[in-house]
Amino acid sequence: MSARRLFAILYLLLALGFIFLPVVMLVQYSFQDGLVPVPPFRGFSLRWYDAFLANDRLIHAMGNSTLVAIASSAVATALGFLAAYGMARRKRRLNLWLQLLLMAPIAVSYLIIAMGLLIVFNWLGISRSLLAVGIGHVVINLPLCFAIVYSQLGEHQANIERAAHDLGASDLKALLLITVPMLWPALLAGFLIAATLSWDEFVIAFLLSKFEVTMPVMIWSMLRSGLNPALNAAGTIVFAISILFVILIELLQARSRRHG
Amino acid sequence: MAEAGKEPLVRLEGLCKSYDAQVAVERFDLTIAKGEFVVLLGPSGSGKTTVLSMLGGFTEPSEGRVLIEGVDVTGLPPAKRPTATVFQDYALFPHMSVRANVGFGLAMRKVGKSERDARAEEVLKLVGLEGFGSRRVHQLSGGQRQRVALARAIAVKPAVLLLDEPLGALDLALRRQMQEELVHIQKRLGTSFVHVTHDQEEAMSVADTIVVMNKGRVEDRGAPARIYRRPASLFTATFMGENNILPAKLAARSGDELTLETVLGRFLLGNSKDLAGLQAGATLHIALRPEQIFPAATAPEDAVPLGQAALAELVFQGTHWRAHAKAGPGGKVPLLLRLPPELAPAVGQSLDLYARPQDMTALTH
């Protein structure tokens, strides 16, 4: 093995270690057979998963996270689709500016978005709640969903819709029978990415919620009272579900590549 | 052409289309008879696709009318017109089976499932895809997709079938085969086809009538043989196959007969009613096909000499030698020739060339 190749492999291992070591530690110590999640590792046990499952507050928070992730992603996907569809099908001079405006939230920090929303909600009389968190997640995920769907709406797709109209389909029928099913992989990918990001988002969820909180916020508040292996178990589950979403997205992309 | 007094199937009247300041189509008139195969032929940007699009209802004309079966459909959307389009990229519905694609138009017309499937199978058989109904679109080859697109459009029994460069994406052999099949299918159905292409060979192989377009205007229209042999304009003469264009001057005229003066000699041309208004001294051009120029060995008896030409380039193409030659005084007139394959010409060789005046076409524009 050449020195060059050896260096490349070492570099790769270092980079991967840097990225994954914290997660590996978290996952490993969620199986710690002892009272504190610090080295040395005392052996394998599922007791902290028992503790997690017995913790009503954590389970409830996980339910909240699921609700917010699904609802906000569905709304972001629907709005992103409509925006992309409208812009792709009605060419206007303003399109470029509209596109910039729609994509702008990606460049704004979550903290700024959360603060802005706090001010607006305060003004509108919407209290800090899961609804507020969900709206916040729609704000940050809409640009992604828009971009994913918009990238799939080219001249070829426009011709497919023209063909549907040519064969006698009304606008509504063409949309429901052709456009939406045709874009199904893009819509699902948008939904899954939005759900992944919403699921473990902390800043907006923290600033916009009050009594009902999501899982990351609950973990954070419990961490303040000290390290607890049950939280490692909770973190591992959050991580595992995120990974599941990412795998689904990858599978979806592999599938649409195959079908060209 | 339609019989006198009978309304043609399709009538396009004074169609104009401009985008901002750009004129795409200018005062386009066309009538299409029932069962006629019309090809709109032209280079890209000639407006041929825009005409097709206005006929199908996808583009609204700036001026003019579209009449189909005597009904003014100018303001109607594609769904309400008795037309169906085969798109260049096929535009098949990717999430549906072949059968569902072909049956889609009938489903939109509220035809029941069993009847739809039966019709789909019938049309698939017509395009040579019997038994392909349950395949998915992504499992098909390019040629098969093309056939499905054709079947899908035929299934709704349109009065006019519109084809937008349908064979453009196929390789040469498959394109030739599909050209023949298109003609067979069209003759069997008796449906009028309007086919857009930039390929003049394709136009000649399928058309009853060719409409040659350039820069939004009609350059020429007529049967393929007439357009090839007697093009009406310089553009048509050079766009439809290879041609030699010689500058000429009208030396004298007596009745329909014109005496034309060129650097390769004086030629007496008859049959030129189109040039009736031309006075002696006017400048014009003569179009002469490469295969209409003969070496001494094969020249017909009524051919007249064009003088000597030196061969500059030679390519053997099976049915003939394609040759670039330099003719005229000082070798200043480039000529494209098709020499017989049994000849053994050599670069640098000088040939005596001949042509028949009746093969020459005099053109003013």
Comma- or semicolon-separated keywords:
heterodimer, A: 260 residues, mainly alpha, MetI-like fold, B: 365 residues, alpha+beta, Rossmann fold, OB fold (Dihydrolipoamide Acetyltransferase, E2P), 2 domains, 5-stranded antiparallel beta sheet, 8 helices, elongated
Chart the SSEs and their pairings.
The complex is a heterodimer of chains A (about 260) and B (about 375).
Chain A: H1 3-29, H2 47-54, H3 56-89, H4 95-103, H5 110-124, H6 130-151, H7 155-166, H8 171-182, H9 184-199, H10 203-208, H11 215-223, H12 229-259
Chain B: E1 10-19, E2 22-32, E3 37-41, H1 48-56, E4 63-68, E5 71-72, E6 83-86, H2 98-108, H3 113-126, H4 142-154, E7 160-164, H5 172-189, E8 192-197, H6 200-206, E9 209-214, E10 217-222, H7 224-229, H8 234-239, E11 244-254, E12 257-262, E13 265-269, E14 283-288, E15 293-295, E16 304-316, E17 321-327, E18 333-339, E19 350-355, E20 361-363
Parallel strand pairs in B: 3-8, 3-9, 6-7, 7-8
Antiparallel strand pairs in B: 1-2, 1-4, 4-5, 9-10, 11-12, 11-14, 12-13, 14-20, 15-19, 16-17, 16-19, 17-18
Helix pairs in contact in B: 2-3, 2-4, 3-4
Structure description:
The complex is a heterodimer of chains A (260) and B (365). Chain A has 260 residues and is an all-alpha fold. By secondary structure, chain B is an alpha+beta fold. Chain B has two domains: 229 residues, Rossmann fold (3-Layer(aba) Sandwich); 122 residues, OB fold (Dihydrolipoamide Acetyltransferase, E2P), CATH 2.40.50. Chain B is built from eight helices and 20 strands. Chain B has a six-stranded mixed beta sheet, with helices on both faces. In chain B, helix 2 runs parallel beside helix 4. Chain B is elongated, with a radius of gyration of 24 Å. Chain B starts with 9 loop residues before the first strand and ends with a strand. The model of chain B has no long low-confidence stretch (mean pLDDT 90). The interface between A and B is medium-sized, with 20 and 25 residues.
